[in-house]
Amino acid sequence: MNRLIAEDLLSINAVFLRPQEPFTWASGIKSPIYCDNRLTLTAPKVRNDVENALAEVVRKEYPDAEVLMGTSTAGIAHAAITATILDMPMGYVRSGAKDHGRGNQIEGKLEKGQKVVVIEDLISTGGSVIEVVNALRDAGAEVLGIASIFTYGMQKGIDRLAAANVKNVSLTNLDEVAEVAAEQGYIKPEDKEKLIKFRNNPSDESWIGANA
Description:
- The longest helix is centred in the first third of the chain and has 18 residues.
- By secondary structure, this protein is α/β, with parallel strands linked by helices.
- The radius of gyration is 17 Å and the shape is globular.
- The strands form three sheets. It has a six-stranded mixed beta sheet with strand order 7-6-5-8-9-10, sandwiched between helices. Strands 1-4 form a two-stranded antiparallel sheet. Strands 2-3 form a two-stranded antiparallel ribbon.
- It is about 40% helix and about 20% strand.
């Protein structure tokens, strides 16, 4: 599954690899990789692979799940399609409560004690998805874990998820994408090491301009 989804994301340019011209994140961190999983929605074959893989993760890793909750906004469509495959109810969690209407942060019916799986498109440092998990827990839900499409595999994200006592299962990750990208000529073989160095320590920019 990890390789299939990595190949899919690369095939539709949902993963941008620019070791020579790094992207700059909002935090100021320089990154050789940028992942835009929204592009999967406009590629039917890839979308089918992704949603069926998410459904399989829920079936195998979270068999007691009762509700799927997407993260706002990127996880909403994936949660809806996956819930349709599984014939399950779904909703989504806003980044904050609305300032109008009923003031909801959680949209969709959610009963206290219900077992929830969060559907997320990607995880970097884990901060935003943990906020979603906390909102659901505050509402009385039992969060079984997260099913995500892609994770950077950063130690900060791993540590945060562990501290929040929340499990994450991703369809693919930076290491798998780097391996496939080097094999299939999306990047030079030596650039794979730059991606891994970035993943190991995003604040260390020594990989920029390095030969490996």
